[in-house]
Write a structure and sequence with these properties.
151 residues, Steroid_delta5-4_isomerase, 6 strands, globular, DUF4440 domain-containing protein, NTF2-like_dom_sf, alpha+beta, 6-stranded mixed β-sheet, DUF4440, Nuclear Transport Factor 2, Chain: A
Length: 151
């Protein structure tokens, strides 16, 4: 994969996560294409910048959302102007100082270059519960703690 494309897709993802962590609904929605899809942790499906903004605005205004701690696991091209990024994510609840394993997630982002600008076509945040396999939850949590605590 072209390193420039890889870097641009990683920057898009990092800016999306930064917008979430900054509780910036507009900034987050603007990262999506007009038909971009966001599938949330609870399974909610939002399509397009307006719907994403209308959904996130009230959440950020009325709930103390936890920031993400993320680690990119891979980026690959899906063609000349699209790419897939996979990351793992954890959250540190407000008032806490460590990652809460029950909300660990796999994050998938599909990006496409539209008019020389990379935009999110799909962002999916899927719970990583690993039912019946607590060692996998702990392994992911430890990997994310390495990011959070700079280990």
């Amino acid at each position: 994969m072209n390193e420039s494309i890889r870097d641009e897709v990683i920057a898009l993802y990092n800016n999306l996560i930064r917008a979430w962590n900054d509780r910036d609904a507009k900034g987050m929605a603007e990262k999506f294409s007009e038909e971009g899809v966001q599938i949330g942790f609870d399974g909610s499906k939002l399509i397009g910048q307006r719907e994403i903004l209308a959904h996130l605005g009230p959440i950020f205004e009325s709930h103390p959302t936890a920031p993400f701690v993320t680690k990119i696991k891979g980026v690959r091209a899906l063609g000349n102007d699209s790419a897939l990024l996979h990351a793992i994510a954890g959250m540190v609840p407000p008032g806490k100082s460590d990652i809460e394993p029950s909300v660990n997630a796999h994050q998938t982002l599909i990006a496409a270059k539209n008019d020389s600008e990379w935009q999110v076509e799909l962002f999916q945040n899927t719970p990583a519960q690993f039912h019946g396999r607590p060692e996998l939850v702990e392994s992911m949590t430890e990997e994310l703690r390495g990011v959070y605590f700079g280990k």
